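We modelled each protein-ligand pair independently. The example shown here corresponds to the magnesium ion entry; the chain sequence is given first, followed by the ligand as SMILES.
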Amino acid sequence: MILAGVSLKYGRVLLLRPVSSICTFNMSKYRKKHTWDRDQKKLRVLVDMDCVLADFETNFLKRYKEKYPDEPFIPLDKRKGFYLTTQYEKIGVHNDKIYSVINEEGFFLTLPPIAGGIEALKEMSGLPGVDVFLCTSPVINYQFCVKEKYDWVQKYLGKDWVEKLILTRDKTIIHGDLLIDDRPRIKGCEHEPLWRQVLFSACHNKTYKISNEIRLDSWDTNLWLPMILEAQKRKSSEVQ
Ligand SMILES: [Mg+2]
C-alpha cells in the first residue's frame, strides 16, 4: 500500500489508495440524504431520564442520608447547579461519598418516577406524527447504571420502550427536533445540535435563567401538549 489518507475536494472525498482501487464517496449525495432525514415530517422528541422521568435528586438525598447520617446535606429546595459534587464540596463533603451513593447497586433502578412523566410519554408517543425516544447519559462508572436504566424503562414503560432507549455521553450528536432535558447548556461534539432544548425544571435548575430554551415546569398535560403541538406546527411549516 502506498497511499492511505483522505482528501476533500469539490464536495467529494477521494480515498487515497493504490490506483487500481481508487473509489470516490459523493458528499453531495450524503448531504442530500442527511437533509432528507432531518426534514421528515414526523416530530422527533428526545426525552432525558434522570430528573425528567426518574427522580434522581430525591433518591440521592434519601440514600445519602441513610448512608452518611452524620454528614451535612443539602435539602432539595437548596440545591443549586447541575453537579451534586460541586455543591457538596462547598459544605465539606468529599466527592467519593457522593459517588459511593450513585454508583451503588440498585440506585438507578429504585429512582421513583417523576409525577405524570410515564403517562405523558405514553400519550405523547400516541400522538399522530410524533416519535418519542429516551435519550440518557449513563454515569462513567457504568457497572450497574446501564443495566438498571434498561430495567427501569421496562418496569415503568414496558418492553416496547426498551427499543426507544438511546444511551450516549454526547447528546449533541443525536438527531431530533426537541430534547427535553434538565441539564442547562448541553455541550458536545456538535456545536449546533439539530434539536432545540426544552429545559425541564428540576430542583437544581430552578434559578437558572434561560435565554433561547423553552422551559417545561412539569408533566402537566396543559404544559407539555401545547408545546408539542406548537413544535409540530412549526416543523410542518418549515418542511413545506
Ligand atoms: Mg437529566
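The mean pLDDT is 87.
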